Sequence to fold (778 residues):
Amino acid sequence: MSTMLREALHVLRSDRAATRWTDSLPVGNGVRGATCQGSPGRERLWLNDITAWSGLPETDPIAGVVDRGAEALDAVREAIARGDAAEAERLLHRQQTPWVQAFLPLGWIDVEVDGSFDDSCRRSLDLTTATAHLDYGKVRHTTWADTAGGAIVHRIESDAPLRVRVRVGSLLRTARPDAEIPDGIVRELLLPTDVAPGHENPPEPIRYGDGRSGAIAVRSVGPATVESGVLVADPARTHTFVIGTATAPSIPGEPESEADAPTRAVAVLGGIGSDAAAEADRRHEAHVAAHRELYLRSTLTLPSAAGVLELSTEERIAAAQERPDPGLAALLFHYGRYLLLSSSRHTGLPLTLQGLWNAELPGPWSSAYTTNINLQMAYWAAETTSLSECHTPLLRFIRRLAAGPGATVARELHGADGWVAHHNSDAWAHAAPVGAGHSDPAWAFWPMGGVWLSLHLWERYAFSGDIDELRAQSWPVLASAAQFALSWIRRDGDRASTSPSTSPENHFLADDGTVTGVGESSAMDVALLRALATACVRASIVLGIDEPWIAELLSLVTALPDAEVDADGTLREWDRPREDTEPHHRHLSHLVGLYPLAQITPSRTPSLAAAAAASILSRGRESTGWALAWRTAMWARLGDGARVHDQIMMALRPADTGGGGHRGGLYANGFSAHPPFQIDGNIGLTAGVAEALLQSHEERMLLLPALPAHWPAGSVQGLRARGGVTVDIDWEHGDIVKVRLRSDRHTTIEMSGPGIDIRSVVLTAGQPVLIEPRENRW
Fold:
């Protein structure tokens, strides 16, 4: 790849100092992350550790609930049945726990270089090496989160010897005076036992007690002293600082250790060799090799506008609204993959609502897990863009949630079998409704979270074909989710229903004039439960399991209401025609059957596909960053390349830095705005672009099914199809000129695409197949 092409498609650039957190450049290795907010003479590294959460393991997963058990649930159902929406909501308030815990900003280090510098600087983030740079005068800062070794490394190089000072700071309370280590310093921090979300106003929003602790350790690879709490490195032309973070005691699902947080943080620093420069080079080379092994598996090449290398990424985003720059879409495709692999690896915790990066206390929506769309969306690109390893932390978390709090909440709160999760969770696997006894059930009560999360386990098998993993790790979770579904669905003769039912986070006008989100059998409930039943049937066939409950579940979900088209041509969201009170709502929950579930497709259900398209249009053009990404994937499923392009352009416009409203876009550092920043907007857009280029949900592969006309020529490598097939595609003038297929196993696939008339291809494990339609060769 030429340097110019790599810069255009794989490098974020800025020609000004970072003045706000959303200017900073992110690095991460799945456990430790930093955002680099640099300016001449100073680099602030905001530090995060995926194990740094408020709270403690919950002894009672439904603490704070007033009403619990089957009788409480029956009372809600009776109120709904008689049309008393207000009473149903009042009763559901009594089934709410307070809130989930927060992902914490662990702290920061300020790296200050002695000297006088002007205001000019250049900053960049090379996605191919996962390395951030800051250049001013004759000084260069380099930062990476060591993928191979685990520490964060910051290096400074200059033409003349410079003295460097490092200060450690945090929004958290300090546990005790800083400790000194050879050429370094360690700060121990108290992690709050409770942090309320920003929308709540308790007397003490952040509470400390006998909780966990965290630590930040910084060591200079070279002579340094500690002066009044500041690490001062002796003048040198090269400085390298190694930063370790840790928390204690261990988070559930992580390896247990008796060591305290400072000891763990210091251990991350590793040994220091006698040759500082060589040591830093070795660490960086190992880091880059480990990073590229994942990052370079999938790349998208699209032409870039002339002169883009003369623009900062911020300027390029603005300019793309006026002139074509398909390469910007490719850059953001790569950025989404970069953010996923940087924040979801080597751990039992999935990425948060802000990935691995958060500088606020509390973070937006506690920077926790929102499971009514956002957590799932953040992993949509994992399998399709060849990052299956990055999916693993989520799958581990789902198994822990199902075996622990999810099962307890199903039994004790709902009187149900199996396991359940509602719309919020955290590192402690919270599974119950939140809301502190007063919040709107339209978002606080949603017992389909576990059902949707379970489907990730089936998708993993669909791509990997790993029967051992399916049998030992996934089937128990799927079967338990099915047991909850069997308990939850109500049957009355030939008719089945779900109640209480919501369509996150939307509302309608009830018969009594009440604005509510609580009813029966929302379209999303039905779609998810049918998808779960289908997954269980397919898994049972693969595993040779024949149990009576499988047929019972299939019968129950078949009796649920079928999808309907309302008089206005849109897909029905509720159990019957209802008046929307928020016609432009950002959630399109009733279209989950279109994407990602593939129950609605243009070829198999054309009338429902048309209704789904009408539903998207009815919500208006404007929405949040993550909602624009979801619409991109849905238009791709509908085969509409023009609207795919329209959604991508809206997602790639400059964000409103005021942060208000529901207008999506990109901040200066490429983060997707809800606003504020949510990582699912970035990774979801990557998934949407992948879906426009390759689909595999209909027992066949569709190549370039929704290619935007604005991308007449390009290539993509390393997309993955269900069945374990890796696909590379080159195209010109909108037609395919080359396809390369590689399979994990012996298989026969059906495929089609523009310029391809081959119906069936036989693949042998490990033997690539090249197809050149114009040459009629394969």
